[in-house]
Amino acid sequence: DDGRLRRAAEWMLPRQIRRYGDWAVKNRAGRPGGWCFEFDNDFFPDNDDTAAVILALDGVRMDEKESEKKAAVEKGREWILSMQCRVGGWGAFDLDNNLQLMNKIPFADHGAMLDPVTVDISGKILEMLGNFGYNKDSDPVRRCIDFIRSEQESDGCWFGRWGVNYIYGTCGVLGGLQKVGEDMQAPYIRRAFKWLEEHQNPDGGWGESPDSYVDKSLRGRGVSTPSQTAWALLGLMSAGETDSDTAKRGIQYLLDRQEKIGEWIEEEHTATGFPGHYYLRYHGYRNCFPLMALGRYRRFIINKKR
Known about the structure:
By secondary structure, the protein is mostly helical. The protein has a domain at 183-306. 45% of the residues lie in helices and 2% in strands. The protein has ten helices and two strands. It has a two-stranded antiparallel ribbon. Helix 4 runs parallel beside helix 6 (166-179), helix 6 (166-179) runs parallel beside helix 8 (226-238) and helix 8 (226-238) packs parallel to helix 10 (285-305). The model has no long low-confidence stretch (mean pLDDT 95).
């Protein structure tokens, strides 16, 4: 009920897209209700941002606008469910947009003419669904978990389409699985934890270069960054390893590198536009994700002392 949160929620609420867009070409049953990544892009709401907005709105009490908020959240949830692809996961913008022939036609040189189903977005949506009482036995969740398990790499990690790279994908998956009640002691989950543990840098942080999209031997390897360290910590905490030495070292890395004015410095590009071609440095990442990780760790410490 903090006033700053209410103002942010009031800003997001009217930006829900209530008109049909290109997604409706394949999704004839779905009704509008998503949010888009950028301004004035009503034709292309996306699943990832819609799930993030729903999670944010659901955590804010809006008093006289509470009923309006709940209706918007429900519309968003229904739209996301209508966007689940046949393989069980979710893409970013479209439904079953996976005709590989399109990438063979020389429209562009980045090989990204499709909207593939990805585990990082699917994990975010599992997190959102878990917030509304869906569990691993719910049909959309069960189908999504089957897809996620089929996409796991042999060493335990997952590919990240929209963030660099296997650190992002792995931690997004773990957060979603934990939220829907998956057994976090299951062997495939422990393999993911082991992968994160093995890829912690000597300074306590985690980092990964965009070069891992081109050379898979570089996955999970790179100079430590605040955002990627925070992703790894969020994954560890989802896996039940909040009290582990690995997590404690990661927390200390973030604490040691916070500037006096409160922010973190990050020069690396940790967001992905087109794998192998185009990467971004979102200036919010270096502060937002460390705060999320530290806040979650703080709650754990407080509850542990009770």
